[in-house]
From TrEMBL, chain A:
Taxonomic classification: Eukaryota, Metazoa, Chordata, Craniata, Vertebrata
Signal peptide limits: 1-19
Name of the protein described by the UniProt record: Interleukin 2 receptor, gamma a
Gene3D superfamilies membership: Immunoglobulins
Top-rank taxon, per record: Eukaryota
Membrane topology designation: Single-pass type I membrane protein
Major location (coarse): membrane
UniProt keyword annotation of Transmembrane present: yes
Record bears the keyword Protein biosynthesis: no
Source organism (scientific name): Hucho hucho (huchen)
CDD domains linked to this entry: FN3
One Gene Ontology MF term: cytokine receptor activity
Domain called Fibronectin type-III: residue spans: 104-198
Segments forming a coiled coil: none
UniProtKB/TrEMBL annotation, chain B:
UniProt cross-references to SUPFAM superfamilies, sorted A to Z: 4-helical cytokines (SSF47266)
Similarity annotation: Belongs to the IL-15/IL-21 family.
Organism: Hucho hucho (huchen)
GO molecular function, one term: cytokine receptor binding
Main location: secreted
Job of this protein: Cytokine with immunoregulatory activity. May promote the transition between innate and adaptive immunity. Induces the production of IgG(1) and IgG(3) in B-cells. Implicated in the generation and maintenance of T follicular helper (Tfh) cells and the formation of germinal-centers. Together with IL6, control the early generation of Tfh cells and are critical for an effective antibody response to acute viral infection. May play a role in proliferation and maturation of natural killer (NK) cells in synergy with IL15.
UniProtKB keywords: Cytokine, Disulfide bond, Secreted, Signal
Keyword Disulfide bond: yes
GO cellular component terms attached to this protein's record: extracellular space
The name this protein goes by in its record: Interleukin-21
């Protein structure tokens, strides 16, 4: 949208003059009595046009004798009707005079004379005596003051104030003697005069600044866009992870495990599973104890108490090793007997 | 330099006539009198002939101030003005141009307006 906007701005500023386009003429046969040709379809005209028509290809244009009026402006023309008219080509012409607008004046310059007199100079878009110019100025951003139009390309400020800031603008049009143009030109680029600094400051703020602003913002937006694209491209893998989370699939990890049959194969191949391949079994010494019957009560109690400490250590070491082997069942059998 | 002075003189003369015509218009009684009015859609070389037609018709206007009416007629006859509207081409200087009677009839207001437009056209060509 900004691109279109900046192009439109360029087109509009390049236009020399704006001229309201001549309206379309619509002709209508009324009841086989007469013909009404009107040009108010797109809205009431704000100027008086001159209407001409001719019935034959060869022949002169005739001016309208009966104009149709609306709000003190001519909106159409009534033409007489001829039976063959509906099968003829009617050529119409709508003429408007003085639809004209000049370029604004350029090359504004200010200088202070000895008198003291503050003089403004400029160049009109055309070097002709037919142009008249109008100056407006404001002091320290107060209200605008406008001069009377004159054909000079120079203006002197009456009794200029000291320690003030003046801002000038000029516009032009074709004067009344030469056929006055309907529209004044646009106001020229402003020029400033600061009596403190005694300088000619051409005020670049305004349309040129807005052009710069548009251009810079456009460049900035495009740069950001390019940078964003580059970042996205670089981090596309990571972004994919974030945006589309991966579903965990344990099957992949245990795929090789499930394929093998033997336990040895498990031990050697799978590393992630919690088996210790370097497991060594600690041998536990086993002793057999028999009850010798000497005196009934004393021997029983002695034999009960004589539990070898070694065996308890063995048992503890075996069970402490991280294994789920069914080896413990053998130890238990030995102890009881 | 001579050409420049010539141009300035001519444009000043034209400006003078246009201003006088406007003065005259204020003193004319526009009572619906119809006069043959040359159109502006005419060939370049018929400019002078059209001006002559206008010049013969001006005295027919009913003006309260006769002085200004006479002054306008005198200026329209002047050599300086005629040199502005004269044709560059040698052939057909007054040949192919319409006679004054052949131009359409318009009321006095239109007549004065057309004459002013003709003079303005000449001025635009000059400057």
């Amino acid at each position: 949208i900004k691109m279109v906007g900046s192009w439109l701005f360029l087109l509009i500023s390049l236009q020399g003059y704006e001229a309201p386009s001549t309206p379309n003429v619509n002709c209508l046969f009324i009841n086989l009595d007469y013909v009404n040709c009107t040009w108010s379809e797109q809205g009431s005209p704000e100027v008086n046009y001159t209407f001409f028509h001719k019935r034959f290809i060869k022949g002169n244009m005739e001016e309208c004798t009966t104009y149709l009026q609306e709000k003190s402006f001519a909106v159409g023309c009534r033409l007489s009707y001829d039976k063959s008219d509906r099968f003829r080509t009617l050529t119409t012409k709508l003429v408007h005079q003085n639809n004209m607008k000049l370029y604004p004046p350029v090359n504004l310059s200010v200088e202070m004379n000895k008198d003291p007199e503050l003089n403004l100079y400029w160049n009109n878009s055309r070097n002709t005596l037919c142009i008249e110019s109008e100056v407006r100025y404001r002091i320290n951003n107060n209200k605008w003051q406008t001069s009377t139009p004159s054909k000079e390309q120079k203006y002197a400020v009456p009794s200029p104030l000291k320690s003030s800031r003046y801002k000038f603008q000029v516009r032009a049009r074709v004067n009344s003697i030469c056929g006055e143009s309907k529209f004044w030109s646009e106001w020229s680029q402003p020029i400033q005069w600061d009596s403190m600094k005694g300088n000619n400051i051409t005020d670049t703020s305004g349309s040129s600044m807005s052009v710069w602003k548009t251009v810079l913002s456009l460049v900035g937006t495009m740069t950001l866009f390019i940078v964003a694209c580059m970042l996205v491209y670089r981090e596309r893998e990571r972004l994919r992870f974030i945006l589309i989370p991966i579903v965990p699939n344990p099957g992949k990890n245990l795929e090789d495990l499930l394929d093998k049959d033997t336990v040895e194969a498990w031990l050697h191949i799978s590393k992630d599973v919690c088996f210790q391949p370097n497991f060594t079994e600690i041998a536990c010494p086993v002793r057999e104890y028999r009850l010798v019957p000497q005196t009934g009560s004393i021997s029983e109690s002695e034999s009960n108490l004589s539990i070898p400490t070694d065996q308890s250590d063995c048992l503890s070491t075996c069970s402490s090793s991280a294994s789920t082997f069914p080896a413990t069942s053998e130890n238990e059998q030995a102890g009881i007997e | 330099m001579d050409k420049y002075i010539d141009k300035v003189e001519k444009s000043m003369k034209l400006t003078e006539v246009i201003k006088e015509l406007r003065e005259l218009n204020k003193s004319v009684e526009h009572n619906g009198m119809m006069l043959n009015t040359p159109t502006l859609d005419i060939e370049e070389c018929c400019f002078l002939s059209a001006l002559e037609c206008f010049q013969t018709m001006v005295p027919q206007l009913k003006a309260r101030q006769k002085k200004i009416q006479q002054k306008v007629v005198r200026n329209l006859k002047s050599k300086l003005l005629r040199s502005v509207v004269s044709c560059n081409r040698e052939e057909g200087k007054n040949k192919a141009c319409q006679g004054c009677d052949s131009y359409p009839l318009k009321d006095s207001r239109e007549f004065v307006k057309q004459l002013e437009s003709l003079l303005q056209k000449a001025l635009n060509r000059l400057v």
